[in-house]
Amino acid sequence: RLTSQGLRRLRCSVEFLCRPLKQPTWKIQYQSVLRFTTSLPDFIAEIQRDSDAGSVMSPAGCSHVNGFKVDNWKQNLRVIYQCFVWSGSVETRKRKAKSCVCHLCGAHLNRLHSCLHCVFFGCFSKKHIHDHAKNKRHNLAIDLLYGGIYCFVCQDYIYDKDMEQIAKEEQRKAWKLQGRSPPSLMHNVVQLRLGLINLGNTCFMNCIVQALTHTPLLRDFFLSDRHKCEMQSSSCLVCEMSQLFQEFYSGHRSPHIPFRLLHLVWTHARHLAGYEQQDAHEFLIAALDVLHRHCKDDNGKKANNPNHCSCIIDQIFTGGLQSDVTCQVCHGVSTTIDPFWDISLDLPGSSTPFWPLSPGSDGSVVNGDGHPSGATTLTDCLRRFTRPEHLGSSAKIKCSGCHSYQESTKQLTMKRLPIVACFHLKRFEHSAKLRRKITTYVSFPLELDMTPFMASSKESRMNGQYQQPVDSLNNENKYSLFAVVNHQGTLESGHYTTFIRQHKDQWFKCDDAIITKASIKDVLDSEGSTHKRTQ
């Protein structure tokens, strides 16, 4: 049975093309409305699981609303919808922002509900509104985000024809006050684009925020209200990101001013504080680190160990990098696997030697004969990243087989790929002699197959069985480009922009507050400093 609240969530999720995250092994796809209908049973089951206990409401409806329908109940309900749910005017939105906090913990998120019998706001996630209902015997409360009516006796969101009519009327009034017409499905799908105000050299933050807010699984997580904050202060970056996602997908057209996000970034990542130019890649790693620390895993424990964490950040962005160190004497191999959030790739033209690579006759990767004359490819960079490297006599490692220090080779491969893979091109070079930006053009594809760079592929090559890995047949290692971060300018002075793919063939250029349409050619011709890809 799909309740009125469930229907409201369903409509919202269809408009935003959301799909709940079921397990870490999900592969990201851009669902169309037709494809969404295939996941309807799973979505209904998810809505039902959101209820903290089994529903005991009778099929005929909830009889407990009769206790509320006395005196001026219609006028009282209209006031609540006008002031605290739909908030059509500027004044009511300001009032809602100031007044809608939990009367017990002071939080403004955690699915706030308002008691319909008295003036009380409480968290639904932390059950503060449940405690109030139990102590005061007030059976009904209204969800301040969706407008649904919850009955604590029935333990479910309820449908009442009269209440639903009032909700619709007040929502239409709010739309008129905002100069909006009732949104249609396809209209909203196209218009989900919001610019970000530059607060003074904050383009490095804006471009990464655009990429994160358009990451499908991250979007689904925040829009389904899955974060359960346990921090006592208002410094939780996950809570701020949750509010940011709500703003991004609210249908508002005005550019967003991310001042609270900037403040929290400065608070938790001191090296990014100030109005000097910063590096977008550094912000990405810092943001993922803070979000990771502020999340909790499925067992309710803080995610302090990145190797054993099930928080949403690790589910989406964490992969496993395998390092094989081979002794040149006994050929013994020492293997370690480390987690990673991104892959940083050297470019030709840097002080680090770079050779083009080509596949040998047996499928193995071998060095080319000369230096590259100009442009290179992302695949070349990945081949270099995963080729064997001789560590030299000055970096001998103690071999567990020889029990002595020996020369060795080291090779990096991908043991486990993340759902979203981030590739960072190391364009900024800092050394004792020089500081410069490497402007070498790097071409990159719309679709990328990571199978040749997997640890399993290396083992297949060693065994002479590299013709067609099983992984490649299952398309598990193939990625689709959905975001490209670019830096224009020099090392001392520059500006960041982002290309975002919102649908399969629709690209947009995000330049702070300005969002414009872009072609695939614009994207592929761009310089590129960070690429985000989904499986």
Automatic annotation (TrEMBL):
SUPFAM superfamilies: Cysteine proteinases, RING/U-box. It comes from Cyprinus carpio. This is Ubiquitin carboxyl-terminal hydrolase. The keyword Transcription regulation applies. GO terms for molecular function: cysteine-type deubiquitinase activity; zinc ion binding. Residues 60-177 form the UBP-type domain. Pfam families: UCH, zf-UBP. Residues 194-535 form the USP domain. Keywords: Hydrolase, Metal-binding, Nucleus, Protease, Thiol protease, Transcription, Transcription regulation, Ubl conjugation pathway, Zinc, Zinc-finger. It catalyses: Thiol-dependent hydrolysis of ester, thioester, amide, peptide and isopeptide bonds formed by the C-terminal Gly of ubiquitin (a 76-residue protein attached to proteins as an intracellular targeting signal). Its main location: nucleus. InterPro entries: Papain-like_cys_pep_sf (IPR038765), Peptidase_C19_UCH (IPR001394), Ub_carboxyl-term_hydrolase (IPR050185), USP (IPR028889), USP_CS (IPR018200), Znf_RING/FYVE/PHD (IPR013083), Znf_UBP (IPR001607). The gene is LOC109100192. CDD domains: Peptidase_C19D (cd02660). GO terms for biological process: protein deubiquitination; proteolysis. Belongs to the peptidase C19 family. UBP8 subfamily. It is found in: Nucleus. Its EC number is 3.4.19.12. One of its GO terms (cellular component) is nucleus. PANTHER family: UBIQUITIN CARBOXYL-TERMINAL HYDROLASE, UBIQUITIN CARBOXYL-TERMINAL HYDROLASE 22.
